[in-house]
Inverse folding.
């Protein structure tokens, strides 16, 4: 059976709070609850989230519906952007372009796309090997895109980002298998996700 990767939906943006501590906004929480209520995640599935608050919020909402155990893994966190801290939207977008445009570079001290991809792929590999079955991963847009590129055999590029192909506010999903590598579908908004394919 295939696993699922889902990004956190909308967050409370507060320039005075480090981004890993941002939580879901009321809109994000409502979207997560509506997705959980659709029953598309099999009951009892392990739910693995990054240690960032927004991903934890999402995981907890889904666990309430599925009864799955929530596990936290710091290696699933978003690409490390602590060198710059909060940036105005236009500054942030310019750095994201550079991040995806040159995967081996460290724009303004950010973790490179290549480094982040190796980290998240290994974290998913170790988790799935330990579980011995599928899981739901709650994470972030950039590293989710890097995982998607890996399983889909695609080059790292901005055009693969969730905001280029699905809902710009996050809360997007794709189904995949890691071994063998297979991307079942591209990013799709949680509202449009039709469910897991047949095994």
């Amino acid at each position: 059976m295939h696993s699922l990767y889902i990004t956190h939906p909308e967050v409370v943006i507060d320039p005075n709070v480090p981004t890993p501590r941002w939580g879901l906004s009321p809109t994000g929480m409502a979207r997560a609850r509506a997705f959980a209520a659709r029953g598309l995640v099999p009951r009892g599935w392990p739910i693995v989230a990054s240690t960032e608050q927004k991903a934890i919020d999402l995981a907890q909402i889904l666990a309430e519906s599925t009864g799955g155990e929530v596990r936290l893994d710091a290696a699933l966190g978003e690409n490390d952007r602590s060198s710059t801290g909060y940036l105005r939207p236009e500054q942030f977008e310019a750095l994201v372009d550079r991040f995806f445009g040159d995967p081996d570079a460290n724009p303004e001290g950010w973790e490179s796309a290549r480094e982040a991809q190796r980290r998240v792929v290994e974290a998913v590999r170790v988790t799935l090997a330990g579980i011995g079955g599928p899981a739901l991963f709650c994470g972030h847009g950039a590293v989710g895109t890097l995982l998607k590129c890996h399983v889909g055999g695609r080059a790292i590029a901005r055009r693969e980002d969730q905001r280029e192909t699905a809902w710009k506010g996050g809360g997007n999903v794709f189904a995949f298998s890691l071994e063998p590598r297979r991307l079942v579908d591209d990013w799709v908004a949680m509202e449009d996700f039709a469910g897991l394919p047949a095994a």
Notes: The chain has a mean pLDDT of 96. The two ends are 5 Å apart (CA to CA). The longest strand covers residues 172-177.
